[in-house]
Amino acid sequence: MKRILVGIKRVVDYNVRVRVKPDGTGVVTDGVKMSINPFDEIALEEALRIKERGGAQEVLALSVGPSDSQQQLRTALAMGADRALLVDVGQAAATLEPLATAQIFLKVVEREQPFMVIVGKQAIDDDNSQTGPMLAALWQRPQATFASKITIEGDKATVMREVDAGLETIEVESGRLDRLVGDLLDLSRLEAGAAAPAPELWSVDDLVRDAVASLHAQDHVDVVHSAHPYVDVDAVQIQRVLANLIENALKFSPPGTRVQVRVNATRAEAIVRVVDQGPGLPPDQLDRVFSAFYRGPGATSAAGAGLGLAIARGFAEANGGRVWAESRPGQGATFALALPVAEVPAELPA
User: Fold this and answer.
1) Residue 7 maps to which CATH number?
2) How far is CA 139 from CA 10, 11, 146, 267, 290, in A?
């Protein structure tokens, strides 16, 4: 279910004249009207608008505070929230730090699996705006602050936000950040020598098929077999190599063209070539494109962070293979993967 989680904080009503305690440790709350933090109310209203437009199926209100926060959650339900959760921290609510609140939110996020969390831009009691950014860091998700309007399309959110000069529009995409974090972790493992493969006997045909399927690219890729070799490799790592090479070719291919994957073999090696019809590469770029964070000429922000080919080379070499590029400017590029051919047991087709 596509779910939005909204943070609800219990604060002194904004119409109430606040009185400081005689000892200066806080404000008087006994007998004082309490309400939803106004900015959290705005966040809830935006979540409900997103749901009305079909961008979500459920709005879940979450409050971390004393048991009396039930009143504010009932208000959230009356406004249109589908469900409400209270994490009752009792008297600790008065001294609960934003980081602790963010950690509690993270536990709820892990259980409820929302695709988006919306919180008010700040709390009117302490004037802080820390819990949201801290949660984004702990959850490893992109964030947009001071939002005034949110539009959802797939796993991408287009956010209009308030800045000193007026309004600006940004896009945040969770899938892209997940991929970047995963790429950085893989790269660090490779550089530390901690990506030891778990080799098993695999058909190259199956590895190519699974790599293409993982990209949902069957309609844009032609696979040509002139041999059907077997290799002894870590399937997850080599599928990642092939997927990165194919994805790179798709990114740089002109609209309407197809990428070709050619499988052949020599006596010693199984070779997979990924051929595109893009702009090609000059000779001085053929090896450089495998450097981490390098993005070739003409790359746009949508082309990635420049880690895919570096990771492909690292995983290929970890499995005893190699990758390289062949190209002539203006005539497309070919990225090749070679792996040692494995001996095929008699009961398997050669």
Assistant:
1) 3.40.50.620
2) 24, 26, 19, 49, 30
| Helices vs. strands in the chain: H and E counts, helices first | 8, 16
Dist. CA 275–CA 327, nearest whole Å: 10
Q: How far apart are CA 62 and CA 83, in angstroms?
A: 9
Please tell me the distance from the alpha carbon of residue 5 to that of residue 116, in angstroms, as a whole number: 6
Q: Residue 149 falls within a domain, yes or no?
A: no
- Domain end residue (candidates: 92, 119, 139): 139
Ranges of residues in the chain with a pLDDT under 50 are 300-302
- For residue 288, what are the domain limits? 198-340
- Same domain as 327, residue 232: yes
Residue 56 lies in a domain: yes
Spatial contact of 179 and 142, defined as CB atoms under 8 Å apart: no
The strand pair at 156-163 and 200-203 is best described as unpaired
* CATH assignment of the domain containing 236: 3.30.565.10
Quote the pLDDT of residue 235: 92
HSE-up of residue 32 (Cα within 13 Å, Cβ side): 18
The answer to whether residues 171 and 156 touch, using CB atoms and an 8 Å cutoff, is yes
27-47 pLDDT tens trace: 666 777 888 888 889 889 989
Task: For residues 124 and 225, state if they share a domain.
Answer: no
Contacts of 300 (CB under 8 A, 6+ apart): none
pLDDT at res. 301: 45
Q: What is the 3-state secondary structure (H, E, C) of 92-152?
A: HHHCCCHHHHHHHHHHHHHHHCCCEEECCCCCCCCCCCCHHHHHHHHHCCCCCCCEEEEEE
pLDDT for residue 347: 63
What is the reported pLDDT for 56? 83
